[in-house]
Design goal:
The chain has about 500 residues and is of the alpha+beta class. The chain contains seven helices and 26 strands. The longest helix is centred in the N-terminal third of the chain and has 16 residues.
Length: about 500
């Protein structure tokens, strides 16, 4: 949830002290979400808090008030209060007044220019050091990262915050198989330290475990990100963005219109979309250029506070090909998402607008039938499927295909879905359907619905007698074994019908 605390006639002090009303406002908002969604866990799940400036002060005061609820916190340019500041209502407390706050992992962050003498934010940053140094002297798992070139603007702190939360969330959540709901306290073993003096990193040592001259960093990968940020002000994004989806191609007279949808790249946003026809680059779709806020004309732009520029609507995901007409197919077009780090997604191939509109007339989308192969690609990166035939509405492997046949990958990307399919497997066959696939360092993996000739796959198969668990048809490979007496499949050469239902975290085969 993204929140905005709004007081147009006053400064941040209207809401930075949570006990003056903003904490109640947050809790009431969560109760409202519970009421309208039917998810009671919303009111009890832990919080990751991430705030800038006044939002950082608010974040630290929430840590002081509700340490048992807070999984981790990232205050950018703010502590409990600016040094020496008083307010007209509630006053900031000493961080030592609630020792439970020292168990909450915190990564403080600010720009080096903010602490320069005479800078208008100097007192704010002194307040950061008052809190950080007190916590580290108590051995709190707290860290401090200073951007070497920035002032009060967020700069690239988003990159560090994301890696901080990605590291801490699995470490702090309780074991789902246990009955405890308490957040897990971080261990000293295997942790790392960042040294404030020379920005070097090293495994945690007992003599530095409670030193205000060091930052606690939960593991080596986070320590490396901390060092890159504090040294260069940037952390390299190495993860390509997700590919576009729902690429529709509509021919109108002498021109062709492309439209699509896309998900944001959480780390680096979308810089632009690259449009191709038959492998040749046709052009790009980005955003409006603005000298101050978007000089690179990125599709996504952020303001000083690292918020989207709400006053400028996003550019439409649309491209008009006005090049001379030639015989082309919808799948001759491809679109790639390019993030702001310059990394390209896998390509998404086009689907004719007629085919798209036909699909929208029913809640079901046919992935076979006429032009069935046109709905599939041969790899996560695109390309035509190899070694497949389309005959009488059936997709089948070509018995004469040479080595190098590919799997089939749907061009469309689905969230929750229900897939029904018919299959006929050969003697000794071993196949599967994978879904919700993710690229793990070059390996495209996901849950796997087994399709087997069970009897041939396991010699000595005796249905109804042998109760040894094995992977059999319709089981979830790697996680679920099947009961022979419940084997649902018909033998090789006879048609079977399968079904996969995926709704949120619930999966049915």
């Amino acid at each position: 949830m993204g929140s905005q605390l709004w007081a147009p006639e006053e400064d941040c002090s209207t809401w930075t002290m949570p006990e003056d009303g903003s904490a109640h406002a947050l809790k009431r908002a969560l109760e409202h979400f519970t009421e309208i969604t039917g998810h009671p866990e919303i009111t009890t799940i832990p919080w990751c808090l991430w705030g800038h400036s006044g939002g950082a002060i608010w974040t630290m005061n929430m840590v002081h008030l509700y340490p048992e609820r807070i999984l981790a916190a990232f205050p950018r340019s703010g502590g409990l209060s600016p040094a020496g500041r008083t307010y007209s209502r509630s006053q900031p407390q000493s961080i030592r007044e609630n020792p439970a706050a020292f168990k909450v992992p915190i990564l403080f962050c600010y720009g080096a220019k903010e602490r320069e003498p005479g800078n208008r934010f100097n007192a704010l940053i002194e307040g950061v050091h008052q809190a950080f140094e007190a916590g580290r002297e108590e051995g709190a798992p707290w860290a401090l990262a200073v951007h070497p070139d920035a002032e009060h603007e967020n700069a690239q702190s988003r990159q560090l915050a994301l890696r901080f939360f990605d590291t801490l969330i699995p470490k702090r959540l309780p074991d789902p198989l246990s009955t405890s709901t308490d957040l897990v306290e971080l261990e000293k073993e295997n942790a790392w330290l960042g040294k404030q003096a020379d920005l070097d990193i090293a495994p945690l040592s007992l003599d530095m475990a409670s030193s205000s001259n060091s930052s606690y960093l939960a593991e080596e990968s986070l320590a490396e990100s901390w060092k890159a940020f504090t040294t260069h002000g940037n952390i390299q994004d190495k993860t390509p963005p997700p590919p576009p989806h729902e690429l529709r191609v509509h021919k109108a007279g002498s021109q062709t219109e492309l439209s699509w949808n896309a998900w944001a790249d959480i780390e680096s946003g979308i810089g632009h979309f690259a449009i191709y026809r038959k492998g040749k680059l046709l052009g790009h779709v980005g955003g409006p250029e603005h000298p101050a806020t978007n000089p690179e004309a990125f599709f996504h732009a952020w303001n000083y506070h690292d918020q989207p520029l709400l006053e400028d609507p996003l550019t439409r995901m649309r491209f008009i090909d006005r090049t001379p007409p030639e015989p082309i197919q919808p799948e001759d077009y491809e679109v790639r998402t390019v993030n702001q780090a310059g990394l390209y997604s896998a390509p998404t191939q086009g689907l004719s607008s007629v085919g798209w509109e036909t699909q929208q007339k029913t809640s079901w989308k046919s992935l076979s039938g006429e032009n069935g192969l046109g709905l599939w690609q041969g790899s996560p990166k695109g390309g035509h499927p190899k070694g497949w035939l389309e005959k009488d509405g059936i997709l089948e492997m070509d018995p004469n295909a040479s080595e190098g046949s590919s799997s089939l990958y749907s061009k469309e990307v689905y969230g929750d879905f229900e897939l029904t399919f018919q299959y006929r497997i050969g003697k000794g066959g071993n196949s599967e359907i994978k879904y919700r696939m993710t690229d793990y360092d070059g390996q495209f993996l996901g849950p796997e619905y087994q399709i087997l000739d069970d009897e041939d796959h396991y010699p000595g198969y005796r249905p109804g007698i042998d109760t040894t668990p094995h992977y059999i048809t319709a089981t979830l490979y790697g996680l679920e074994m099947g009961d022979w007496s419940m084997d649902p499949r018909r033998p090789p050469g006879i048609w079977n019908q399968g079904r996969i239902v995926v709704r949120g975290p619930r999966i049915e085969h």
